[in-house]
Amino acid sequence: MSRWSRRSVLAGLAGALTLGGCQQVQPDSEGRQTLTAAAVPEANEPRGQLTPAAADCPRLPANAEAYICSPNVDRDSNLRLVPEATEYSVGTGGLVFTLVNRTDSEFRTGRDWWTLSVRRQDGWDIVGQGARSDDVVVKPGGVFVWILGGQPPDDDVPRLNVDFGGGLHALVVTGYAAGGTLTAVIAPIQVTPHLG
User: What pTM does this model have?
Assistant: First the structure.
């Protein structure tokens, strides 16, 4: 049995909705209003509870115009990709990632507009990615969820099924910010490979 269920995912979303006054995410209806992307913070800014190595974020995709490294930004007034845990053991069920929009503009992304990369000695390598679509709009105060591994509770939650090993990884969700700025929102995680 999975370590999370539809009820736990929805309860987590309800908590995020309650704390942030969030609104429901709706599919795009030709409205193109999007958010102003945050600048990439300097390396000496606070990094939350991650170790300095785990707060490292790749600059992927290469054609993005702005990068938001989630552990390095203001949690109360920004766009962030938040994993339910900063460490993940492969084969233990799914890991929930929540894109939280605490800005005053919409963010246009897609259920399959993601990239998973791994940190190697000579840089970051892509280990999995979805297609590039922009069928989701995350409204100001809204959230959207992806599941890495495991089975999603329903078709509304995209599953990112990637075969990967251990080490520092980063999930990147890409989309359009205010003025059509291509923006990458990044969440690093430490992965332990499946040993069975």
Answer: 0.73
